[in-house]
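Reviewer 2 asked us to include a model.

Predict the structure of this chain.
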Amino acid sequence: MISCNRFWQGLALLLVLPACTPYLHQHMLATQPARLGAEVGANAHWRTLPLPKTRSVVAVYKFRDQTGQYKPQENGSSFSTAVTQGGTTILLRALEESGWFEPIERENLGNLLNERKIIRSTREEYAAQTGKKQPPLAPLLFAGIILEGGIVSYDSNILTGGAGLRYFGAGASGQYRQDRVTVYLRAISTNSGKIFKTVYTSKTILSQQVDASLFRFVDFQRLLETETGFTYNEPSEMAVKEAIEKAVVALIYEGFSERLWAPRDSTEYTGPGMQNYLYEKSANLGVDVLGRDLKLRRTAVAVGGSASVQRYEGDYGTGLRRPGGELNLRVQVNPATSILANVGRGQLAAGPNGALFNQTFNYAETGLLYRLLPYDRLTPYALAGGGITTRAPTFASSSGLLPHVVFGVGAELLLKPKFGISAGIDNHYFLTDQLDQVKAGRYNDNYWSGRIGAVFYLGKTAETKAYEKANPQPAQEAPKSVKKSKK
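Predicted model (structure tokens):
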């Protein structure tokens, strides 16, 4: 029988733990008051913009969702749209906040015209009754430029993933998903109908889930089970707002070249804001659809070294772990493939304290190394090649040369533009069974190596060389504000 004290303690625990969960975000019995809308860093866009010489009157008739896409659901169907239908309202506020435009009402023009009719009719009746002539209603503003466009795509699940671990009834896991919204914006002349400029921007929308649980017997007939977690979904409306505001900023700078509008200070045509935009636009040419930078990070020639732990597999049975070292030279054939040349030295041993077999070897080899993600800082790689091995102290040992093949996998991480670290595992398989000078069994002698090393890249990337060839002057550094924002 469970004692009354333990029963009430367990019941209190079950009641308290769920109650604590919402309290991490807000009190479980209190609601949040209304607040001003979140700006999500938009003020930073407007603060860095140069001041306009005059505000341009622009009209926006509609800027809406053109995707027609509904919210994705795991089960069932939803008739709720994936993105907001109020794109026009968001754009009008962005135009106003930028300080460069004087937006005028065109989305609900019928309502405005009806109200003006009511005003005229009321004034006429008042003038007829009192005999006092009323002033005419001010004419409507007209726009020299119409802004058109819309939300043209909403891509779901462009990137998904997760990880988890569970051991002895306890575990945790996490999942994430990326969506993306794309916005197009164009400026049209009301005088000629010419399209001056078209810009487009995109914004990713992140959703992630983290949870942890415990399921375990703590005593005989005593089961402990608990779980916790949270899910975060970035609001799609805020993502649309950021994409539209970025499009307005891009349109302002693009309008400089077309002289659609002018800054108050003429030096701003080539000022820091314009330079930052041009740098971002140029850098964007080397970014893929997932936002990865595809510039050539690694130079054509690299040297390095590694330390390893080697384990012998041969005729003497299970081997021992012994140290080794290696020097490397790599020459790129293309961004993904390099020719490698290695020289190394290591020990192999078997038996208690190396009593059965204990020998130091030197080797030299060449082959190919293939990087799976050659443009990324972190890339897996695979290598394959062949070489010769000889017993120490020289390669001209009287025991002869032992040919071998090598294959391995690993990963390399660039910590700095010309310095990286690598970790991997490889196998040296000998083409003869004479490494340990004993010939037995079906397979030849071999050994495994687990290694950690450093890589130093020499010279300049092909991209930098091409730029300097086309532009003899030294390459300009990124503007300071861009560098700070990237940090």
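DSSP finds eight helices and 15 strands in the chain. The helical segments are 4-23, 42-48, 87-98, 109-130, 236-258, 272-284, 462-470, 480-486. We have added this to the supplementary material.
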